[in-house]
Amino acid sequence: MSGRRHKSRGAWGAAAAVLLALATLTSPANGASLQVVPTSLTLQARQNADGLWLSNTGSQPLHAQVRVYRWTQVDGEDRLEPTRDLTVSPPMLQVPAGERQLVRVIRLGPPPMGVEASYRLIVDELPVPASAPAEGSVAADGRAGKHAGLQFVLRYSLPVFLLPATPRAPGAAGPAETALQPDLQIRWVRTGEQTQVEVANDGPAHAQIEDLVLVNAAGERQTVRAGLAGYVLPGQRRRWNLPVTLHPSASAGGVFKARVNGEFTERTLLSREPAATTSGVPR
Predict the structure, then answer these.
(1) Are residues 144 and 20 part of one domain?
(2) Which candidate among 70, 135, 148, 279 keeps its CA 20 to 30 Å from the CA of 264?
(3) pTM (two decimals)
């Protein structure tokens, strides 16, 4: 999803909510099945391009469209906007049954400076045109027709991260990019009658939060968010509603733990003082 800015920020905010959602499974009448690997990309500062594979595991050719957007967060909400920082090639493609196609993601400018930049690739399997010939008939190009009617397609939303050109500290081992880490802190936030937990990321790299739990003073674990909770981009914060069974008083003497960026080992999140607010993100 790339191109000139032709919608207002509000319109793009609404579009982002749609784009970040995964669509329903492919209709059996379609006969095509789209798979995309890998499910995320990271371009090093020295790297100008990378690629992903679109595979068709079905019995019919599939058509797909690939677009790229700048991904930011405002008050904890994801926003997608057109960008010219990256491009994809090819943006439109047809994948025969049982085959796969490489799509290249190309950086058009210099790498970011100091802080990681975030993007989203939106991969859509395109529906069969309404004018397609009926099942059993043969079109002029020799392809068999499909059933008319509603076609369900797949949509993938894949994160892409550009690592910055960060000078390595004297004596540091390994490439500079490996030193980039999120800097996470967590706290309770009360908004009227609603209590939430807020994770702030003051570091230069994103944080993918999974399996967020509270371990109280007695060592008992209470789940806050099971599985993938979401991403917190650099300099941003995200909030999640608490289970009704969880109360801030339960955190006394306890710690929050989560898996960050796919790490197998849990990470303890530093706690901030609870904040009282009526709306928005506290300053």
Answers:
(1) yes
(2) 70
(3) 0.75
